[in-house]
Amino acid sequence: MSNPRLVSRLAAASIAVSIAVMGIKFVAWELSGSVALYSDALESIVNVIAALIAWFAIRMSQKPADDTHQFGHHKAEYFSAVFEGVLIVLAALLIFREAWMALGREHALADPGPGMMVNAVAASINAVWAFILIKVGRREKSPALTADGRHIYADVITSVGVLFGLLVTLATGWIILDALMAFIVGANVLWEGWRVISSSVNGLMDVSVDSKESALIEKIILANATGAMEAHDIRTRMAGPVTFIEFHLVVEGSMSVSRSHQICDHIEAELRKAIPNARTIIHVEPDHKLKDEGIAIS
Description:
This protein has 8 helices and 4 strands. The chain is α+β, with helices and mostly antiparallel strands and 298 residues long. It starts with a helix and ends with a strand. The longest helix is centred in the middle third of the chain and has 30 residues, at 143-172. The chain folds into 2 domains: 4-204, Alpha-lytic protease prodomain-like (Up-down Bundle), CATH 1.20.1510; 211-296, Cation efflux protein, cytoplasmic domain (Alpha-Beta Plaits), CATH 3.30.70.1350. The protein has helices spanning 4-32, 35-61, 76-103, 112-139, 143-172, 176-204, 211-224, 257-274; strands spanning 230-239, 242-250, 278-285, 295-296. Strand 1 (230-239) and strand 2 form a beta hairpin. Helix 7 runs antiparallel to helix 8 (257-274).
């Protein structure tokens, strides 16, 4: 079963981690004077804002259904992820601006060694935290937590790229490489923003489960619909951690309502065991509703 309390706690902890990492990165920039490190620090501001929004959205999504939101508030997480994607894109534009301005002015690296070491510490913290968020977010089917983890993971890749670029800059003495690396950082951030937005929009558009889970649903229906004749028009959609499943179940016309209801109850119970937070709606039909494309139940 899903663990909403764990998701909420991780979302709250992500705020503290993001603030700590942001502080570390700005220290790294102050020590080095690197435009690339500054661009990396700028993105960490977005990380803090995104963590705050993710926490709020997760709390909102866990509210029970009410009179005006009868299917629950689960999609709040998708709105959070879309907004986070927009913030990521804005961060990329800020980075591009800073890199462009750096190309037109002379700047020198103050003391890159300590700054690079401090930035490496921040990247290490982010790497561990991103792994935790993505792992738990996918397991608990939390779009906001997963998006936050993916964003932080992109930040790790960015930091590694920045550090590599600075090493090349120190080896060659070409200061312009610092600004060029900032452009690369911005491009990577922009791409990650697009990925977060596109995946979240799919959720808002009621995307179906993947092929693996779809096959599992069909298998469970076939294995637990003894007494029925056929299942057809199986449809699914996802809303955060909740999976909605709908299908038509054909039974003999003479079967009693009580017996058909027992079959439906058994299928629903087995689906809940296999798919946490499954919400199943079964429409029972008489045998003259059989369809050629339906799945025959032996």
